[in-house]
Amino acid sequence: MSGRPDPNELTNLYRRRFSQRDLETKRAMWQVLAERVFQPYVPTGGTVVDLGAGGCELVNALVAARRVAVDLNPDTSTFAAAGVEVLLTASEDLSGLDDASVDAVFTSNFFEHLPNKDALLRTLQESHRILRPAGRIVVLMPNIRYLPGRYWDYFDHQLPLTHLSLSEGLELAGFEVGRVVPRFLPYTVKDSPVRIPPVMVRAYLALPIIWPILGRQMLVVGARR
Known about the structure:
The chain has a single domain, classed as Vaccinia Virus protein VP39 (Rossmann fold), CATH 3.40.50.150. The chain contains 8 helices and 7 strands, in the order ααβαβαββαβαβααβ. It has helices at 7-17, 20-38, 57-61, 76-79, 117-130, 163-172, 198-205, 211-214, and strands spanning 47-51, 66-71, 84-88, 102-108, 131-142, 175-185, 217-224. The chain has a 7-stranded mixed sheet. The longest helix has 19 residues, at 20-38.
């Protein structure tokens, strides 16, 4: 893939990638992650944007007065829960959202799909534009420093980043980086030999001592200056 992907290609790719069991596991996992990790970053009366929302597992699970899912994949509209707005647009063009109108921007496993760092910087700049002063961007994604091989097993992975390079990009876009967890979550639930129950996710989050052992994805939080 080069440049902006074709929406039909995205639809075909993701319909092939995840089994029904994978999707069910992701929904259960994200329900816990939304409650324990992401909800504290957005006021329940505020506005949240999920970039690269995909199956809407995160945005569906969050509590906010306004929830917006952004993606190029037309299937995103079918996954969005009642009350979730869907913008079928590129992350580099959030013209459907007003300046300083959003309390938090979340993105999970998305930045690695962008074609290059120019596209990433434009995405970060657009996120900065729509955020209110002191609003936060929260990024969860694979950390190439701890995942050099399996990262490339997916056809649409293009942009490798570490917690350090991502932090630099955020700073270039006008953010102040506040929280960096280089090794946060394991890499993927796809094709897991066992179904991962919510109680296991809660236990993992409660034991940060094991994150440096099992974590392959980073969590980075930036605040709009």
